[in-house]
Amino acid sequence: MSIRAPHAHELASIRDLLARSGLPTADLDTAQIDWLVSATGAQLDGVAGIEAFGDVGLLRSLAVAPAKRNAGVASALVRDVESHARARGITQLVLLTQTAEKFFAARGYRPVARDAVPPALQASAEFRSLCPASATCMSKPLAVKRVLFVCVENSNRSQMAEAFARLHGGAAVEALSAGSRPSGQINPRAVRFMAELGYDLAKHASKSLDDIGGAFDAVVTMGCGDACPWVPAVRREDWALPDPKHMDDAGYRGVRDEISSRVKTLLADL
Q1: What is the CATH number of the domain that holds 19?
Q2: Would you name the residues annotated as active-site residues?
Q3: Do 77 and 123 share a domain, yes or no?
Q4: Are residues 115 and 172 in the same domain?
Q5: pLDDT value at position 248?
Q6: Does 201 have pLDDT greater than 90?
Q7: Total domains, the chain
Q8: First CA to last CA across the chain, in angstroms?
Q9: What is the pTM of this model?
Q10: Disulfide: which of 11, 50, 131, 196 matches 135 by Cβ 3.0-4.6 Å?
Q11: What CATH number is attached to the domain comprising 210?
C-alpha cells in the first residue's frame, strides 16, 4: 500500500470514486483540497482530503474502493491525513459523516455541535449545502497526548481506563482502548459501575488492536502480559491489576477506583 499525493491525471478517478461512494463532488473544482490517495500500482484504492481554514482543517471525502474495504486502507489514510495536517500547522480536524461515526470515534474523533466549529467551516459548501443536517459533526484536536489502554477482551479494565483518561484529561488527551482478542462487547457491570460516576460507558465499543493506528505517548497494558502485542509508544507501563469480571461488587469498585487513581498519575506525568 502506497499513500501519496495524487498525480494530475488521477483527479478524474478521485471524482469518480467519491461519486460512487455517495460523497459530495459539486465543489471539487473550486474548493482548495489537499488530497492523499492510497494506490496499488496505477489503481486508486482510496482517497481522503483536507480543506484548510486557518489552523482548523475539514477532513472530507474519505472513500475506499469496495474491493479494498476492511483492509486497513481507511485507517492508513486517516493516519496520514492527520500527519499531513500537523505538518501544515493545523491543530484541529473537523468532519461530517452519515455512516462512519463509529470508525472515527475509534480514532479519537468526538461528536460536536455544528455551531461549535469555527465560522469559516460553517460557511463552507460542505456545511452549508453538500452534507445534510442529519450528518454527525465530529472533531479531533491534533496537539494532544495520545494514550492507549490494552487488555485481552477490551471489555472491563481497559474500557474503564479509557473513560477515566477522558474524564481526567479532557480535550488535552486522546484516550483509546483495545484488546488483543476483543470480546465484542462491554461488560454490563463495567457500564453499571461507571454510571455510578456519571459516565456512560455504553457509548464505547470493544475494539481490536488491528483497528488502532499511529504512535502513542503512552501505552498501558492492563495485566495481560504476553497476550498484548507491541504497540509503538514513548512510554510503556503494565498495570498488573486483577480482572474484576468475577469479583463481587465491592471488589469491582475497588479495581475501578484504583484505575482512576493510576490514570490521574499517568496523565500528570505526561
Answers
A1: 3.40.630.30
A2: 151, 224, 228
A3: yes
A4: no
A5: 96
A6: yes
A7: 2
A8: 33
A9: 0.57
A10: 131
A11: 3.40.50.2300
Whole domain around residue 105: which residue ranges?
A: 2-141
Query: What pLDDT, in 10s, does the model give residues 98-153?
Result: 889 999 988 889 999 999 999 989 998 888 888 888 899 999 988 678 899 999 99
Same domain, 16 and 136: yes
Residue whose C-alpha is closest to residue 139's, from 105, 173, 100: 105
DSSP per-residue string spanning the chain: -EEEPPPGGGHHHHHHHHHHTT---TTTTTS-EEEEEEEETTEEEEEEEEEEETTEEEEEEEEE-GGGTTTTHHHHHHHHHHHHHHHTT--EEEEEESS-HHHHHTTT-EE--GGGS-HHHHTSHIIIIIS-TTSEEEEEESSSEEEEEEESSSSSHHHHHHHHHHHHHGGGEEEEEEESS--SS--HHHHHHHHTTT--GGG----BGGG--S-EEEEEE-S-GGGS----EEEEEE--PPPGGGS-HHHHHHHHHHHHHHHHHHHHH-
pLDDT in tens, 75-96: 999 989 988 898 888 989 999 9
In this structure, are 31 and 133 located in the same domain? yes
Same domain, 161 and 123: no
pLDDT tens digits along 7-33: 999 999 999 999 999 888 888 988 899
Tell me which of 114, 141, 168 is where a domain ends: 141
